[in-house]
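hiii, so i know i said id send this last week but things got crazy w the move. better late than never?? heres the sequnce for the chain we talked about at the cafe, plus the structure i predicted for it. fair warning i was half asleep when i ran it
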Amino acid sequence: MRSQKGKDVLLIDADDQTPLGYRQVFGKAASAGLAVTEYKPKDERAITEINNLYNYIFHE
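okay and structure toks below
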């Protein structure tokens, strides 16, 4: 984990290319029973991060 502009950021690969920030929308979406991609208002950074995580895990 490293800090980026004062916020903690989890890096999910060894090349530091796939950051996953601690965003409020992750918790808000989960508590509403939604994926971050379904939650409104849309948070484009969070959507990009979660899509990058998915692609990293499933090699897509």
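btw The longest strand covers residues 7-11. thought thatd interest u
miss u guys!!
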